[in-house]
Amino acid sequence: MDKPSTTISDLKKKRRMNALISPTLHEIKFNEFVLFILEKKMGTTRRAFLMELARRKGFRVESELSDSVTHIVAENNSCSDVLEWLAGQNVGDSSRFELLDISWLTECMKVGKPVEAIGKHQLVTPSDCITETPPLATKEVSQYACKRRTTLNNCNQKFTDAFEILAKNFEFRENEGICLAFMRAISVLKCLPFTIVRMRDIEGVPWLGEQVKSIIEEIIEDGESSRVKAVLNDERYKSFLLFTSIFGVGLKTSEKWYRQGFRTLDEVKADKSLKLTKMQKAGFLYHEDLVSCVAKEEADAVYLIVKEAVRAFLPEALVTLTGGFRRGKKIGHDVDFLISDPESGEDEQLLPNVIKLWEKQELLLYYDLVESTFEKTKLPSRKVDAMDHFQKCFLILKLHHQKVDSNRSKPPPESKTHEAKNWKAIRVDLVMCPIQQYAYALLGWTGSRQFERDLRRYATHEKKMMLDNHALYDKTKKIFLKAESEEDIFTHLGLDYIEPWERNA
Length: 505
Fold this sequence. Notes:
By secondary structure, the protein is α/β, with parallel strands linked by helices.
């Protein structure tokens, strides 16, 4: 019988295995730690990535299980799962191995050195292995994000990362229904205080339809999703991801460029016949800075610049950092501020005056001032994603490196194309609102997007009220409800108050 020919898939698999067996040499800094990363429920690709990352950080990582191994790192495996696997490896006494969860390795990678292997990082001993469904999964998880407390401690990032890629793909294809289904799944998975390791862990959890469950099951079994891999390799997805990274470029422009045959930003820039908007020109000009993350230290430095400029004209003005940074995030893509004057209520000349000041100080790289269309008597919008009507300014500011907190661990790297450049372009949004609407605007601009969507949906469906960034209207009593704080709004809605850092839905 003829020997079957080698397929392309076989060759790729062989190359991956060769990469594992013959790793690139790196300096070993921590000789007392010899790691073995378990492939079970992780997948070959992810394991290879983690092995190489750990080696670059100075850890000794073995490709095969051997007597020299001291620590076994596993993902989505219980203690009994690992022990069962070890029993089939004929290694003798398995108690000599330290069995650790992937969270230990992740934390080691963050700090660049070994951390204590205690508590949550340890896989429990056989007698303590949990075979029951995690407690919360048997209780009711609300369908509304505004009734769930969601911190930045995401126990299921492997799943939510996959769904974010799928949601983004359907957003690019303007399929709002499926995109929203994945966004709701992401939101509810983020609130779970345990890592999903088996399908029964998600029994009774809302917004996890059959399509979502099949992807979760595939990731549990194989360590990755074939659908996600297909999206990541999709030419259209990759092109749209690039195009929408440009400030001022949305889905319509991306679709137009893709249909014209463009696949890279260089191809777009090379076509002189394209008519770019002022915003898009700024987006290309400062693209390198704008696509890099904004650190919390940089956001704090921008806050001081904004506060100083605003209070030069309105000494008593409230200047509040909103968005992800108010929710406790350490990095973001832009910096949002809400401004209100308790004395005058609102000053329509403030933002134009601040713009002129920054132009004189040569800090302003781009701005787009949108005038207010706010009407006090207008009912809140019925749309859960409706934008507000306050005066606002979308701009790009020049942040000099010396303005950033001196406690930063290391200075920002200098751009190869701008070796003498001592500043970074930062995206900033300024929103000016009347003091009477301040609480509603603060709640709306804090986010997260899914939290705000569900808060408005809850008001409509459960309370017969209408909520947006301007007001809360009781349709039964036919009155606007006043609020001096976010707590007042939650009270009007009959909800427990949720702190900003618990709104990361």
